[in-house]
Amino acid sequence: MSFYLALSLALFGIGSLGVMLRRNLLIVLISVEIMLNAAILALVTFSRMHGTVDGRVMGIVAIAVAAGEVAVGLALVIAFVRLRGRPDADQMDLLKW
Description:
- The chain is an all-alpha fold.
- It has 3 helices and no strands.
- It has helices spanning 2-21, 25-50, 54-84.
């Protein structure tokens, strides 16, 4: 079980580095998804360790929320690329105008 927690920690670390260091909006969106999957893996691992189904149910709900988050995030990225021509996260504040 500790292997899965270590894998979850590694995935979360990779995702957080991707969010902090990259400027491409698609890479940032993928990094957020990696972080969310790492949290789901930790939930399922703890659920298995304690012998309950609570973490698994929360994992399924989190997957459903992640699907909605991807749809909205991808729609924002597509709108931004159509507006500016390139997916640069530094120019994302220009969408408020």
